[in-house]
Design a protein that fits this description.
This protein is an alpha+beta fold. It contains three helices and four strands; from the N terminus they run βαββαβα. It is 33% helix and 38% strand. The chain has a four-stranded antiparallel sheet, with helices on one face.
């Protein structure tokens, strides 16, 4: 089976985050820390709208973190975009954990 060189795939979501200008740096940094790729930004009134692609695994508790980071003024929406290969260092950890769980 390993000769087939299997890969793990993860769901990637398109995320749109609407935040006041004052919080742009913090939100952009947080999206990057979540392995997000920024697609673009645009102005919408007094808010900035950030569009990014982010792995679903990294979006756990994002609503809570965003509200905390923006004092309740940040909003976000997300929708499924596509699947991508899990980065090697992460897939190695996943496989090792699965083997350990299987061996008891």
């Amino acid at each position: 089976v390993l000769a087939a060189r299997p890969i793990l795939l993860e769901p990637i979501y398109e995320v749109e985050v609407k935040v006041p200008q004052d919080y742009m740096g913090d939100v952009m940094g947080d999206l990057s820390a979540r392995r997000g790729r920024i697609l673009g930004m645009e102005q919408s009134g007094n808010f900035q709208v950030i569009k990014a692609l982010v792995p679903l695994a990294e979006l756990y508790r994002y609503s809570t973190v965003l509200r905390s980071m923006t004092q309740g003024r940040g909003l976000h929406s997300r929708k499924f975009s596509h699947y991508e290969e899990v980065p090697r260092e992460i897939s190695e950890k996943i496989v090792a954990a699965a083997k350990e769980a299987q061996n008891g």
